[in-house]
């Protein structure tokens, strides 16, 4: 994430002993849970009047860059908009160690969701405006 881009939404995520696997580092599945927390923080900050259930996860890709151990104590999650479609929101997200090294980075595609019809819906103009303010 380059410095000329809007600042991402950030969240501090404490590590728990249950996050570790038999190798003594944070299990790969836990990174997905932590990134879900970051995405929730992103939507609370960007669209505070819309429930997080207004979107469903359609795709996720992740690259693991550094080992994370319990001694790291916490990660900083970062999230911003990569692109928008009719109903689609593509997010760049990553987890960063306290020393600034990226532990995990990737993209997630979410789709605006209508809970009544159980189908995708078009982004509203208010959503689009708020999301564009967070675009990379």
**Alpha-beta classification:** alpha+beta
Strand content is 35-45%
What oligomeric arrangement do these chains adopt? Answer: single chain
The overall strand count is: 6
* CA-CA gap between termini: 8 Å
The global form is globular
Radius of gyration from the CA trace? 15 Å
Uncertain residue ranges? none
Description:
- The chain is built from two helices and six strands; from the N terminus they run βαβββββα.
- With 136 residues, it is an alpha+beta fold.
- Strands 1, 2, 3, 4, 5 and 6 form a six-stranded antiparallel β-sheet that branches.
- β3 (74-84) and β4 (88-96) form a beta hairpin.
- The longest helix is centred in the first third of the chain and has 19 residues, at 28-46.
């Amino acid at each position: 994430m380059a410095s000329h881009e809007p600042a991402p939404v950030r969240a501090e995520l404490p590590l728990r002993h249950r996050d570790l696997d038999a190798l003594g580092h944070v299990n790969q599945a836990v990174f997905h849970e932590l990134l879900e927390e970051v995405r929730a923080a992103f939507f609370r900050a960007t669209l505070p009047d819309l429930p997080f259930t207004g979107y469903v996860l359609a795709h996720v890709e992740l690259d693991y860059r550094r080992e994370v151990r319990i001694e790291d104590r916490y990660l900083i999650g970062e999230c911003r908009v990569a692109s928008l479609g009719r109903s689609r929101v593509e997010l760049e997200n990553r987890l960063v160690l306290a020393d600034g090294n990226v532990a995990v980075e990737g993209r997630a595609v979410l789709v605006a969701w209508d809970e009544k019809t159980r189908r995708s819906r078009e982004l509203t103009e208010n959503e689009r405006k708020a999301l564009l303010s967070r675009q990379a």
